[in-house]
Amino acid sequence: xxxxxxxxxxxxxxxxxxxxxxxxxxxxxxxxxxxxxxxxxxxxxxxxxxxxxxxxxxxxxxxxxxxxxxxxxxxxxxxxxxxxxxxxxxxxxxxxxxxxxxxxxxxxxxxxxxxxxxxxxxxxxxxx
Length: 128
Fold this sequence. Notes:
Elements: E1 2-6, H1 10-21, E2 27-31, H2 34-43, E3 48-51, H3 60-67, E4 78-82, H4 86-89, H5 93-98, E5 101-106, H6 112-122
C-alpha cells in the first residue's frame, strides 16, 4: 500500500512517517504542503492519503477540492489528521464523504502507534 502523508510540521511528519514505515508492505510518500502533495499524486500511485488540514499557504480542504477535479486521484481515500476537532470544523458528514474522507483523527489524541493501528484497521477498505 502506498500512503501519502501530508504534514507541514516536519517534526510531526518525521514521527508519523517513522511509525508508518514500520508497517508491513507500506511505502510512505511525504509532502509538506498542498503543492508537494499534488506533485506526489502526479508521479506516484497513492492508495491512501493522511492529510493535515492546516498546511500554511493552502489548506488541506483546498487540496481535497483540487483533487476532486483530477480523475486519477478523485477516489483516493483520505484520513484527516488535524489539531481541530471534527465537530469544531463545521463540515457535514456528507461533505467529508464527498471528499472521500474515511476517518477523522484528532492530532493531540493520535500517537504514531494509534495512527498505525487505525490504518491497519482501514487497510481492507483502502483497496483501490
